[in-house]
């Protein structure tokens, strides 16, 4: 059988001439469409054009099955086609098999020549081959028609005219202009450098014939210019390599032990405590009390810091408020500042991993064996995030109860606006007034989106100069290197970078100040003050005007600090807050004042306090 088909296919003969394609000057064609991704509509056309009832392949499916069940198998099949396109051939051996059989050409076939071989392949492979052939067939006509004219000058009769050269005698019985063998093409014994038909090279001088010189080698082929498509794999692997090095090398070069905390952050950590709340998450709180008893004890101030600011940035403001006779406290929102990141929710099942483990045709095999579709209905659970405004407000309410500060004068900074507003709406009796310090629900000062970039986010937290420049550009121009390094150390804790990024993603961009202010009578009656930076930028001043329009009854004051005025204008902010809260009528009863005095030196029994590790 092997000898039969070897003779049928023929053998290669030695040619004395070869084509110099560079000298032909053939135009280049744009074939970028051959590398376009597969589209479901095009694949469906190929499937519908297949014969429906031809012989089965090893998978046992005919073309009719793919055409009729296309709406069921479309997603799984396109996933397999995408793997073919991306070059991912893992598991290809399972379907890259075929059945070879001989079909008789006539009745009573006995010899090998009386049979026609046929190859039966899997349906998926057959569709992929047909689709590839259909995609490339679009360019055949243009390539053949366009290049036919150029080849006509090289081969007599290629352009449809009979050959006129006397050096190309036709063989007996040859009526076509095409020679029957390669060595019967017309040739010149002294080809010029610009000739498109040159003698073929050979290493054997005798093969060139007696009296003939071995022709010189053709000119070196010029390298093809790189296209955008061919450069994409290089940039992909380069980016992957740089990302891997940026993530792996710092862990190997740095010591395994955690670096010590900066002195400023360590001192602030010792001044506060971690509230173990039930239910969680746990929150870090710091309280600054005046040295002597005063009537201002009836005006406890609670600060909720904004995104990435943390209570650490308010340490000097809290101290300044306590020096004015006020009880001042700050609570870090979940995952912010020194509060530990909340526990991550259970991971969802990855459909791609399930397909890779069980195979893309698992559903078909189950359908053939049992007659049922393996469909598993899962209950849809609403998204739950401790970074959402309502969840953060509930945690703040539990922290206020643990600290024994209610009712408080609430101070909301930056992105803490939505969480603080939710706390006020749910606990109006626990709030005496509300002060906004450059508060916003959509434009936080710290660019947390940078932390979500794989390489740039890690680089910003590892390079002190880069992090300091980022804070000066976005938060406060007066921040020094020591304070910036403390903020950087706080965000380098385990899971803190992801917590800041998740809190940024969970911001309520649909929050409306006007709607919240008019949501209830209790909220309407609350005294409000707005402190806004008048020196940061014109765009930020315009944002302040929008807040003024939304809160026409609020007291509006411009300050000289930045987006984080607690860093570079804390004395000014402290005086404005102290003047505002002390001018309000006292709503705390003598009983609450007495309870607050008793709890000043005691720890909360129902909530154990531990320093943050």
Q: Which keywords apply here?
A:
single chain, elongated, Rossmann fold, nine-stranded mixed sheet, about 625 residues, alpha/beta
Description:
With 613 residues, the chain is an alpha/beta fold. Among the domains are: 129 residues, no CATH class; 298 residues, Alpha/Beta hydrolase fold, catalytic domain (Rossmann fold), CATH 3.40.50.1820. Helices cover 41% and strands 10% of the residues. It has 24 helices and 13 strands. The strands form three sheets. The chain has a nine-stranded mixed β-sheet, with helices on both faces. Helix 10 links the parallel strand 7 and strand 8. It is elongated. The C terminus is likely disordered.
- The portion of residues assigned to helices is 40-55%
CATH superfamily of the domain at 264-344 and 385-601: Alpha/Beta hydrolase fold, catalytic domain
Helical segment tally? 24
Q: Low-confidence spans: pLDDT under 50, at least 5 residues?
A: 148-209, 253-257, 587-613
Radius of gyration computed on alpha carbons: 40 Å
What's the CATH architecture of the domain at 264-344 and 385-601? 3-Layer(aba) Sandwich
> Which fold name corresponds to the CATH topology of the domain at 264-344 and 385-601?
Rossmann fold
